[in-house]
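Need fresh eyes. Consider my entry:
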Amino acid sequence: MKILVLGATGKTGRLIVSKAIAEGHEVVALVRSREKAGDLAGAELAEGDARDAVALARAIAGCDAVVSSLGTAMSPFREVTLLSTATRALVGVMERQNIRRLVCITGLGAGDSRGHGGFFFDRLVLPLLLRKVYEDKDRQEDAIRGSTLDWTIVRPMVLNDKPPRGRVKALTDLSGVHGGTIARADVADFVVQQLTADTWLRKSPLITW
């Protein structure tokens, strides 16, 4: 399978690129700067802005699926629009080119996963530091759900850089869930698996250890 990865230069995105290549997929990485992405060994680099439909159309040509691991910095006061703007552009390009499979990472606190991060995350981190980011993640998820694509939205618990455990819990029933963590490497493994599996098609699993 040939896949386009957005957010490929982020910590999780880099692991997704490596995992996908190791699994035998061809990878195109849309990056803002080739110079900053020169260490994405084995990936074809396409330069451009993920919000630009023309750049997306050029990068996605010949691909079978897309992984979005786009992220944005904390923004307590300034409005955030990157995630939703890029996702709307991506959905439009994918629908026009009849590319069906999209796997998108959002996060704990998006949509109906809000309120399941534990006291510190739910009462302090999200409302004080990440509120604007998560408002945009909600808009991002809405754009995906409103599409005709074969999508999976992956919501990881709080990310860490620990070694992978090689297994995750994927949940849509969040009763009794109040926080947790997961390694970026395990998230990357799960995301790549969703490119060819239908278990979580048109669902939004929260993944944790």
The chain has a mean pLDDT of 96. The domain at 2-208 is CATH 3.40.50.720 (Rossmann fold). The two ends are 28 Å apart (CA to CA).
